Amino acid sequence: MRFALPVFCFLSLAASCQRLDKNVEPAAKLENTRWMLVQVEDIPVATSSYSESARSYLEFTPESKKTTGRAPCNAFSGTYTLGSTQGALTIGGQASTKATCPAQNLEDRYLNALPQTVRYEISGDELRLYGPDNSLRPKLVFSKTR
């Protein structure tokens, strides 16, 4: 009987350690996926400026912790770090090629928003990146392609 209370406490503690948020996707879903850009702040993005068939995208490579992608005018790459809490993400500044195009303003907003990222959410096939302002509105929205 004297072991019943410690066993009960242990089982209660173990049961409380279950993940409470079952809708949160693990980092593995973020990585090794091509995310097509569909919105920068409040601006929807349909196609890029250089081709009707090519689209701006972002990819996260877990082995090297590198980002690669295409903005409306240029290719870019950089680094990222996943935080210790679910959804925490830091994206470093991105180095890009230097071509100009009619969508340069949109590209500048896209590339400036990436290093402001502090967290992400994945819901279905949609990735949302949020800035440090604690807003409920994402800075960038992407759609999963593979």
In short:
This protein is of the alpha+beta class and 146 residues long. It is built from 3 helices and 10 strands, in the order ααβββββββαβββ.
Name a few traits of the molecule.
10 strands; Lipocalin; 3 helices; alpha+beta; 146 residues; 10-stranded antiparallel sheet; globular; single chain
Describe the structure in your own words.
This protein is globular. Strands 1, 2, 3, 4, 5, 6, 7, 8, 9 and 10 form a 10-stranded antiparallel β-sheet that branches. The longest helix has 13 residues, at 4-16. It has helices spanning 4-16, 27-30, 104-113; strands at residues 34-40, 43-44, 57-61, 66-70, 75-82, 89-91, 95-96, 119-123, 126-130, 140-144. 23% of the residues are buried. The chain has a single domain (25-144), classed as Lipocalin (Beta Barrel). With 146 residues, it is of the alpha+beta class.
Secondary-structure blueprint:
Elements: H1 4-16, H2 27-30, E1 34-40, E2 43-44, E3 57-61, E4 66-70, E5 75-82, E6 89-91, E7 95-96, H3 104-113, E8 119-123, E9 126-130, E10 140-144
Measure the end-to-end span.
56 Å
Give the low-confidence spans.
4-25
CATH topology: Lipocalin
Whole-number mean pLDDT:
82
- Return the string of H and E elements: HHEEEEEEEHEEE
Number of helices: 3
Radius of gyration: 20 Å
- Largest sheet entry: 10 strands, antiparallel
Beta-strand segment tally: 10
Class computed from helices, strands and strand pairing: alpha+beta
CATH structural architecture:
Beta Barrel
Q: Helix proportion of residues, in percent?
A: 10-25%
CATH class: Mainly Beta
Proportion of beta-strand residues? 25-35%
Please tell me what the overall shape is. Answer: globular
Count of separate structural domains = 1
